[in-house]
Amino acid sequence: MLPFALKPGHGMAPVALAAILALVALMGPDRVLAMRQKDREREYADGFPDLLDLLVASVEAGLSLDAAVGRVTDELVRRYPRLTIHLRMLTLELRAGKSRKDAWTAFADRLGIDDARAFATMLRQAEDMGTSLGRPSRSSPRTCARSGCCGPRKRRWPCR
Question: Is the pTM of the predicted complex or chain greater than 0.85?
Answer without folding.
Answer: no
